[in-house]
TrEMBL record:
<dbReference type="InterPro" id="IPR007341">
    <property type="entry name" value="Transgly_assoc"/>
</dbReference>
<keyword id="KW-1133">Transmembrane helix</keyword>
<protein>
    <submittedName>
        <fullName>GlsB/YeaQ/YmgE family stress response membrane protein</fullName>
    </submittedName>
</protein>
<dbReference type="Pfam" id="PF04226">
    <property type="entry name" value="Transgly_assoc"/>
</dbReference>
<keyword id="KW-1003">Cell membrane</keyword>
<comment type="similarity">
    <text>Belongs to the UPF0410 family.</text>
</comment>
<keyword id="KW-0812">Transmembrane</keyword>
<feature type="transmembrane region" description="Helical">
    <location>
        <begin position="59"/>
        <end position="78"/>
    </location>
</feature>
<feature type="transmembrane region" description="Helical">
    <location>
        <begin position="27"/>
        <end position="53"/>
    </location>
</feature>
<keyword id="KW-0472">Membrane</keyword>
Length: 82
């Protein structure tokens, strides 16, 4: 059940990140969900490295959105190079 919950939260995080990011992103449902999940992972690791979170804790919603926006920015830069 935890995996399903993380997928749902990842989808919501991905939607919020896409809404806050300027420009148009042509991502589908699966890519939006993956964006949110990867953003949560990025936020957790950056938070531990900076000292915001303790090791073993998960990133909160705002941190996850910021992480997803970072991933979306990197994705946009890579996609433009093609």
């Amino acid at each position: 059940m935890d995996i399903i919950w993380e997928i749902v939260i990842g989808f919501l995080v991905g939607l919020v990140a896409r809404a806050l990011m300027p420009g148009s992103q042509s991502l589908g449902l699966i890519m939006t969900t993956l964006l949110g999940i990867v953003g949560s992972v990025v936020a957790t690791h950056l938070g531990v490295a900076v000292g915001i979170y303790e090791a073993g804790s998960s990133a909160r919603f705002i941190g996850s959105v910021v992480g997803a926006m970072i991933v979306l920015f990197v994705y946009g830069v890579i996609a433009k190079k093609r």
